[in-house]
């Protein structure tokens, strides 16, 4: 994407995406519109991903929920 910008500056693109205030819903909707015809899903499942940790030597081990 950065290569398509007039100055090709990746840092500028990263700052724009990370620091600008923008609504993600239209982007998510557009992605769904483009992907749906390709994969024809029977169902959509949206879930946060977590990696369970345990043990005394693991960093930041605590109940997640």
Automatic annotation (TrEMBL):
Protein name: IS4 family transposase
Organism: Streptomyces malaysiensis
One Pfam family matching this protein: DDE_5
Occurrences of domain Transposase IS701-like DDE (ranges): 1-65
């Amino acid at each position: 994407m950065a290569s398509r910008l007039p100055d090709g500056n990746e840092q500028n693109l990263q700052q724009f995406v990370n620091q600008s205030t923008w609504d993600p819903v239209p982007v998510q909707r557009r992605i769904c519109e483009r992907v749906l015809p390709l994969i024809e899903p029977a169902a959509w499942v949206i879930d946060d991903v977590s990696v369970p940790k345990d043990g005394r030597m693991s960093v930041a081990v605590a109940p997640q929920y």
